[in-house]
């Protein structure tokens, strides 16, 4: 099947440049969805558009057998590109800074390869192109829009992500691989007044400051040191002028956890700390809590991951590495959980191998190698596209 890769590569590379040049934000992936649907139809798949808004599903059958779902995400980020590429984003302030254009291109290539060789496999390939991963709602949106009834049961769900490692490498991991993520917007209330008369006020800046300090003790003093937890206060806003004490403060927090019980306990501790500090400051109103941008925990199924890793090792050899658990987050797992299917999620490299190793030797990886979401993130086209396409086909064939 993979002998057709050179022919697929001929359209994949220009298509990738086109997608990179025309990024679209979450829930706005209309042009991308149109390109995807047209390409799938050209490859001979049955296509369903508009699932969860802009999601696209392509189905290809070849007799009785397992049903394998392959997923790619489509959305870009509100980032101004600084790569200097000749095919850099033509959309001001929007960029494919996380490689979702790579994911789309690889899955379209895999779909074409499966379609060209239906005599070599048995079962059903379901290609799913998901919107709005970056805001954590795209997978759930597709599920809520009837995805389960649309595609029926599946035996396994597979997904991948390009990341800053040498191009050509593939990395797998069993168990927790990506953290859950929860963002909170917390509003605490004071009593405003003149900066020269603080005794007549309840200062929300002081209150917010005490909350920030106290929150740091949750991880250091309430979480088992063997657990990985990241708690970040990314924004604190209050007041309008140096000599005016405002009436409220807004804090925005982000929490990353790898265990559901720890996640629940830390969220409860955040609420407890905020309420207690408000009481200690004599706040005139109860604080308000708003949860947003929530991502589920990604925990790879042991058996499915072992099956994919065995197939990868046979095909890629020593290019297969172990992927470390990362406090990054994904909403992919919402789909297989809704389908009641096991899943596995792997990574593949997108950085020029020589450049990566030169950075390692100079101890400048963090300085010289742009990471996902950086305005300089730019996967090399090859062997990145080949590797991502091969990985999807090899993993799918381990069932089909």
UniProtKB/TrEMBL annotation:
Q: Where does Mn(2+) bind?
A: 98, 100, 134, 161
Transmembrane segments annotated in the record for this chain: none
- Domain Peptidase M20 dimerisation span(s) in chain numbering: 183-276
Q: Name one GO molecular function term.
A: N-acetyldiaminopimelate deacetylase activity
What does the entry's cofactor note say about binding and number?
The Mn(2+) ion enhances activity.
Q: Name one GO biological process term.
A: diaminopimelate biosynthetic process
Co-factor requirement: Mn(2+)
InterPro entries the record matches: Amidohydrolase (IPR017439), Bact_exopeptidase_dim_dom (IPR036264), Peptidase_M20 (IPR002933), Peptidase_M20_dimer (IPR011650)
Write out the entry's keywords from A to Z.
Hydrolase, Manganese, Metal-binding
Q: Which SUPFAM superfamilies match?
A: Bacterial exopeptidase dimerisation domain, Zn-dependent exopeptidases
Against NCBIfam families, the record matches this protein to: amidohydrolases (TIGR01891)
Protein name listed in UniProt: Amidohydrolase
